Amino acid sequence: MVLSLTGLEAPRGGKTRRWVSLAVLGLFFVTLGFGCKGLSQQERAAVKPVTLNYWTVFNDTEELKRLASEYRQLRPYVKVNIRQVRYEEFDRLFLNALADDVAPDVVSLHARWIKKYQNRLAEMPASVSTARLIVKGGLTKETQVVVDTTPMPGIGDIKRDYVGAVANDVIIGEAVYGLPIALDTLAIYYNKDLLDKANIAEPPATWDEFLEAVKKTTKFGPDGKIVQSGAALGTANNIDNAFDILSVLMMQNGVKMAAKGSVQFASGLDKAGETHPSLQALRFYTDFARPTKESYSWNETMEPALDAFVRGKAVFYFGFAYDSSRITSRAPELNLEVIPLPQLNPSAPVNVANYWVEAVVKKSKHQNEAWDFIRFMTAPDQAKRYALSTGRPSAYRTQIKELADNPRLGPFVSQTLIAENWYHGEDITQAEKAFDDLITATLRPYADKDDPTKRDAGFIATAAQMAQQTF
């Protein structure tokens, strides 16, 4: 039996299926001690059983199991164990696992977590070496162990093949720290029946139209309390996506959020005052929670935004593609539609990128297999299958046009080219808290001695300082 070294991937098509099935059979015999006579020590080492422990948070676990199963057909000696970890528990569990030397091999990290965990992650290699078993011959069978040296996507490949947000997030210096299987963007869900009842035939396409729709669909009771919200906007305590919504409003208004490690959304506040684009965006957002404003449709005493929307108590909900299954599972009869986010300046559109990156832990003893599995699961054909199955957009440029025609995916996919992350610090939780505190402070009533512009500008400056501390 011969150990063959080749720079080719496993053959594709019908021949692959035949070779894989024989390889599985051959591995079965090798494992039991039959048919392994003559295998060299190098050959045995190449197909030694490997278990990859993979932690994920929000990825679709059924799709991940399919990917793990298909990968095992290609590499029968590799088993992938998938564990879903709660978002709020990931940091504690991961750090404890690292300390106890029982860390996973592969982790799914939010793109905004990469800098935080950078020192714990392996840099993606230029290539990986993994083995296959093939059986050749007629009456006399010969088993070969074939070692594939497979190139990984390089920096140039990532910049060419993926939408721009990916390269900006996963490449630090000259190193790549992971690859995505999907990339999400912010859109607006709406209750079509409630729009119809308000005699609004078409969903809003601009922010002005959106404001009119909110005013027409917000209803108040005899006591002045909101009984139907036009839009769940304006607060922080009961809106999960407040950080992203306020960020994108600022960016659409021309704000440079950060550059070269410096938080900049408060720059020039002292000179611009009332006309500063960050202050304008902040007030546009918080006006939805101010009873004195025409756009008033929400406040801090109301239930969580998603809960109100699925119960038919809110007409518009700002969310991501992953929210779709959460909404339909809780409200299957809801006449649900989605529209892309309106743009303040159509000639310079912008959205936010919200997605997860598959990365390898530096302590993993199975670097080749871990990176090869990531290469396999994030390949274009797998990303497309994942998108169609889960409703989460692909990050590949070549798939945008096709997936944009999909009713479920279209509103989100159509925005992937203009989506970006401004935050590249080490503690997104603190940055989100800074925005939450900014929104909450801005909603407080003005004291008689307050200069509203100076007060709110001060809150923006404080939020920028808090965010800067994490860079």
What does this molecule look like?
The chain is 39% helix and 19% strand. It is an alpha/beta fold. The protein has two domains: 3-181 and 356-399, Periplasmic binding protein-like II (D-Maltodextrin-Binding Protein, domain 2, 3-Layer(aba) Sandwich), CATH 3.40.190; 185-354 and 425-468, D-Maltodextrin-Binding Protein, domain 2 (3-Layer(aba) Sandwich). A five-stranded mixed beta sheet has the order 3-2-4-19-9, covered by helices on one side. A hairpin with a 2-residue loop joins strand 7 and strand 8. Helix 10 (242-252) packs across helix 12 (277-286) and helix 19 (428-442) packs antiparallel against helix 20. One of its GO terms (biological process) is transmembrane transport.
Which fold name fills CATH's third level, the topology of the largest domain?
A: D-Maltodextrin-Binding Protein, domain 2
Largest sheet: 5 strands, mixed
Alpha carbon gap, first and last residue: 55 Å
Shape: elongated
Number of domains: 2
Poorly predicted runs: 1-37
| Rg (CA only) | 26 Å
* Cross-sheet strand order for the largest sheet: 3-2-4-19-9
